[in-house]
Amino acid sequence: MTADTAYPVTPRNRVKRLHERASYDRAAVHAVLDAAMLCHVAYVIDGQPYATPTLFWRRGDTLYWHGSSASRMLRHLKAGTPACLTVAHLDGLVLARSGFNHSANYRSAMCFGTARLVEDPEEKIEAMRDVVDRFYPGRSALLRPLTTQEAKATTIIEMPIEEAAAKVRAKGVGDDEDDFALPIWAGVIPVTTVLGAAETCPRLVDGVGKPQTLSIFPEGGRLDAALREGQRLYEEP
Amino acid sequence: MTADTAYPVTPRNRVKRLHERASYDRAAVHAVLDAAMLCHVAYVIDGQPYATPTLFWRRGDTLYWHGSSASRMLRHLKAGTPACLTVAHLDGLVLARSGFNHSANYRSAMCFGTARLVEDPEEKIEAMRDVVDRFYPGRSALLRPLTTQEAKATTIIEMPIEEAAAKVRAKGVGDDEDDFALPIWAGVIPVTTVLGAAETCPRLVDGVGKPQTLSIFPEGGRLDAALREGQRLYEEP
Which Pfam families does the record associate with it (chains A, B) (predicted)? Predict the structure, then answer.
């Protein structure tokens, strides 16, 4: 499967509201995912749903994240458990001439599948290297190596994407035609997530510089652009 | 109940990992919620969990959001359904000297309760006014009024918070003591979500200015600060 194909559409992932904003294309879904570090994973434990915020990463059509409160449950569920991993970027506040037409610009993706523990020790070590290198290109090779104890203490969860949908709003005010003539201010306030100046650890050994590979995170740059570039380098090192 | 009391702690909301980052105080939970416009709500529909991104607002100890794919389900469940509403702010990327100690600075809150439809017509109209005024102080009074048709077409969901937990990481690199001596760059890259210059609707009636109340959204300002100020004005107009 390549990035120009689409995910299957079923009752689970079909977008019900404002379906003109939806896409099931792999490329559209991956574009939303790859611009993010933070996702929310929904699980059910004993009938109670949880939306757990966590860092995640994508490798092909599989999503990975660190263990969470679901880890203990998953240890007893070798077959895995249904989950939904969602990413949402807020891009703008849309102020219309009626309350009803107020909105937001956003990019979101919901991915459905079966979450399971990565139990194979080699796969787990590879995943722990990937979580560093996907965000910080080539960084794992520069670090103090992983210990056996650290690998044991880490839980990694994987979820092959079975179905997914992206939903995007990226436009101006959508007022009712009659309302445009009203003397009411309307417009869009853009929202972006940006990087600040790196704060070097005060205990850094003298003379150690910031690796060149971290230049994808420039002061004042957009986080989403940096993360997309990180994913590109991770896929084509 | 006042903001200086704590939510009850049960197996549902007790923080399991890194519990030193947790707080069950109302004030701590509200501080995370009030800095956000976007949340993720977890529901279960036919055994499948969904993490749905949506705009939300808080009034006292009750959370509100617009209807979603769960609306149809809720119409048949007068008693409501268990839900979890989560907010997470990413505040920084934490690069350590080992892969294991890489982390992120963040503020998150998970709220648990029973989601149900707001069906009383007056309560619904009040909620539709609140969703405007909570984000844009005093704005509902300036707008073209809500129509009966619009009120009918809108679904509002409410969830009194039964339990909640906030979790915050806001510090520098936490390396193992032995690792600080290694010649590896480490530090924090701050992340903030900021406002751009307002883009006025191109179809604005001549001479209409931006209302003074929108000055809480200054160009270059932080979104979280603007939203906290909006909540303060909403609570004490």
Answer: Pyridox_ox_2
